[in-house]
Design goal:
Elements: E1 2-5, E2 8-11, E3 19-28, E4 31-38, E5 49-52, E6 55-58, H1 72-102
């Protein structure tokens, strides 16, 4: 397929992926649908070092070090803190609106 982008012509051949139809399917708004399974693994693009406006980057970013697993207690603590912050923000917003309606602000 011949494509053109900002005056530059190039040829693009999309990869062909072989699939097989699964048994799961149904009808939605009068049309039949089926899940499709890929027959072979997809090959990833090779890593390339690129530069954009003088800044180097890669199309395959490096994997950072894995973080230590967080304990259940720590997760519960963070959930409680974020819920409390959301509640405080909601209350402050309601008080501001009430103050504006009464004419205090």
């Amino acid at each position: 397929m011949k494509l053109n982008y900002r005056g530059v012509s190039y040829e693009y051949n999309p990869p062909v992926i072989e699939t097989s139809e699964a048994k799961v399917g149904g009808k939605y708004r009068g049309l039949d649908w089926r899940f499709r399974n890929i027959k072979q693994n997809i090959t990833l693009q090779p890593p390339v070092n690129l530069t954009y406006r003088g800044v180097a980057y890669s199309n395959r970013p490096t994997v950072s070090q894995e973080k230590a697993p967080v304990s259940i207690r720590e997760q519960a603590r963070w959930l409680m803190i974020t819920k409390e912050k959301a509640t405080n923000n909601r209350v402050a917003s309601m008080l501001r609106r009430s103050a504006q309606e009464v004419g205090l602000v």
